[in-house]
Amino acid sequence: MVQKANLPWVEKYRPSTLDDLVSHEDIIKTVGKFIKEDQVPHLLFYGPPGTGKTSTILACARQLYTPSQFSSMVLELNASDDRGIGIVRGQILTFASTRTIFKKGFKVIILDEADAMTMDAQNALRRIIEKYTENIRFCIICNYLSKIIPALQSRCTRFRFGPLSPDQIMPRLNYVVDEEKVQITEDGKNALLTLANGDMRKVLNVLQSTWLAHKNVNEDTVYTCVGHPLRKDIENMVNWLLNEDFKKAYHNIQELKTLKGLALNDIITELHKFIHRIEFPFQTSIRILDKLAEIEYRLAQGANENIQLTGLISSFQFIKQIQPPE
Fold it and tell me: Is the separation of the CB atoms in 128 and 97 below 8 Å?
């Protein structure tokens, strides 16, 4: 543990065995059975970031090989490496075609973030996978299955890693909190789970950042650390949108945005959740949610935030005229 003192918590607490993994029991059980019966196929892991794809295959590799064998039997290439057709025909082909004389079994090639590979590189990989199956097992890892060509998909056994549920994340979060002696509140834990959306890596990164910055992890410090709107800020904004005139609402929201460095996209996301809890007339809710969706779409297309903010305020002003407050 001494060597791990300065590591980010994401790496420090990365599971090293299949038993340490906190989720996807059916996948881990299946892959464990492949290893036990020495019938490992080519694997394709896909799903959102931070759901355990890389940790699973590294844990499998550690189960297959001793630490001294690991470097000679496992080739791991990540998105940071050049993975054009040159790497496939060079480094991957060389590693795949070299037989293991004194070690029994097969080698493993891990292609992490494989959806960043060029189409030429993926096509060149097809033949290598077929030709050297006796000697090599490939594990292709990606976020978007649609970016992997069908020919590669058909050569692999596919496993989808879905976002982790709060019940799966919480035991690991509590373990890290106890190990690092972090002062954390229940609303702080809930804020971490809300922000993460099933991403274990994000939970630990935000936890570590908040702890280092504030030495106390609660809902406000978590949201402040990542620049996310606080619940009371959203309440104030809704109050201004519904009760103030256009000029004052714009001035107040713009001032709060600048003061706290908030992004309009995050504000829209939180407004959407908040609006669902307000008992508006049916038609009013439809109009507001439709407008929020339209503004979010425009922001995603790169539209100006100030113009979209005025559009947001004007939609509430328009609704007030149709439905005057009682």
Answer: no
